[in-house]
Each structure stands twice: as structure tokens, then as C-alpha cells.
Task: structure prediction
Amino acid sequence: MSDLILAPSQHRMTKRVQSGMGGAAAALDFDAELMLRVKEGDGASFGVLLDKHRSSVVHFLFRMIQNHAVAEELAQEVFLRVYRSRATYEPTAKFTTWLFRIATHLALNALRDGKHDRLQERLDDDLGEVPARQVSDKRPNVEQTLVYQARLNEIRRAIAQLPEKQRAAVLMHKYQEMEYSQIANVLNCSESAVKSLLFRAYEALRARLAHMA
Amino acid sequence: MNCPLETPETANLLLDYCSRKLSPENTAIFERHVEMCPACRRFAEGQRAVWSALDSWEAAPVSPDFDARLYSRLETGPTWRERVFGPLRSMSAYRGRLAAAAACLLLLVGVLLERPGKPVAVPAPPETALMDVQPEQVESALDAMDVLSEFSRKARPENPESKL
Result:
């Protein structure tokens, strides 16, 4: 499929990606090709990557840290690191695996650095940052808003109570729709360990959130 | 089909089923099983509730100036603080291990410094100390002893004043 779309210069890049990643699925990782172009000095390709992954990285970090300002600060750091390490970039894995490995590393460090406690205290205050819920009648009344916020608060607390690695695994599985192998690569553990993490995490979430059905 | 909840290896298939990641054939097999198995039905219902709750958690949109801030940081390059502390930050995950390694190193240094076999400075015995005494000192000490014995002789009971 990519043969039909890519220019001749991009064909060469695809071949390099194929040889570097050693698999047909990996060859389809257009992001890795973009990153290789960034490596060769093409700033516009970095813009394309930023445009494509900005929201998913910020949202992942927001759900990990539960503070929008800190999540954006960390997301900036993620893209800064991506850009600054362009010279040494090698497409040995999917680009998103690398991207989320950086994001997860920064999020876990931020949580361990003690920002976590302060952030948890601000959990309630932070609800004001959440955009107005788009319910079916498009104009939620006060009661609906309060019910939604209480429900949202409960979900956020349930996620925040998960151990850090379980939380990261659930967020990548649920919102980024990553495969077990990719999550394992990000968290630097085995695929069976990821399955076990997810099973325990969802078990805890079912206990806390099943009544919301 | 055996209940997937019976073994941890197959329990994740239920998660895949609930997140619609199974093939249509496997989904059909699971649906037939879930209809008959109350435990799996409870699991699937609970998982669907969690899934729907998580779906309702919308993240706030990214700030409009996100890119502008990022590009301005890219243009200015790393700050002096990032240059100095940047490499150290990556070690923060190993802080506990580093502290343990430092403690072990200190302990090792302590053991090596205090290891047996090292000559220890022991104070010289009294005999050795006597060897250093000069003859003049011995002579004056003997004179002093003579004076003392003379004094004690005079202080015997026949001298009533000494009792006082």
C-alpha cells in the first residue's frame, strides 16, 4: 500500500525501516519513516509527528498525573527529547512504543518525585479544567453537570488508586489501544506480566466502578 | 468450551472479548459460553461497566499555545539547569539502588580499614617505661624515700604530738 503513496526517496527510507525493524508490520510504521526524515534534518516531518501524537501524549500524561498543566509540561519534555535524540534515533521498534516509553518514564518519575501527593490533593480542584460534558441534549442542566462531575471524580479516583504500572498499562490498553506486546515493550516487562497487570487492574476497577452500569 | 476464568492464562481472553479484540469466530464461541456461564456473565457485565465509565472520562483539550511554547524551547536549546541536572534526572529511578550501593561501599571501606592483622598502636607496658628512667631520677627518688622514712620514724607513738 505504501508503494503507491510514497515518493522514490521515501521508498529508500521504507527499505531502511524494514531492515531495521525486521517485520512487515514494522515496515508500515510511517511514523518511524517521518522520524528518520527528522534525523536527516527535515523539520516539517517533526511537525507532522507532533500534530499526530500531541493529543494522545498529553491525554495519556493527564490521565496518569491527573493535572493538566503538569501533563502539558511533561508532554513538552517528551517532544523535546524526541527532537533532541533525533541524531541517535534507530527504528528498532514502533515509533509510538518509543514515544510512550519516554512519556511513561517521565510520568513515573514525576509521580515518584513527590509531585504525586500534591497532585492528588488538587484532584478536586482540577475538575474545573475538564471541558463541559457533551450530553445528548447538548445543554446539561446543573443537576446533570453535578452528577457527571461526581461520576468523573469517582473514575479518576479509581484510576489514581491503581499502582503506577497498572495505571499506565490500563491507560495504554484502553485509550491508546496498544497491543500487549507494545505495552510490554513500553513497560520493559514480559507480555505475560502485562496480561497479569491488566487483569489485576481491571479487577480492581470492576470492584470500584461496576455499580456505574 | 472450558470456562476461561478457570485458568489465569485464558482469563485475558475474556478481557479481549470485552474490548472486542477477538476474531468474529472466537467472539461467537465466547458469546455462547457467556450465555451459559454466570461467572463469565458477571465478569463481562462488570468489564463493560468499567469500559463505559472510562469512555466517559474525556481529557481536556491541549492548550492552543502548546506548539508555540515547544518550538520556542527547541529554538533556545537546553537551559543550563537541564544541561547540569539532565543526566542526573535519568538516574532518579535508581535512587534507592544508588543509596544502597553507597551504603555497601561505606561498609566495605570500614571493614577494610578495621580488618585483623593491621598493627595496632598499643601503649608501652610499664617495664618498657622504666627502661627510659635516668639514673639521676632514681637517685632523687631514693633520697625522697629516705626523707619519708625519717619522717615516719619521728611520727611514731612515742611522739605524742604526731597523734594530733
Residues 4-55 of chain B form one domain. Residues 113 and 119 of chain B are 11 Å apart (CA to CA). The interface with chain A takes residues 8, 11-12, 15, 19, 43, 45-54, 56-63, 66-67, 69-70, 73-74, 78, 89, 92-93 of chain B (CB under 8 Å).
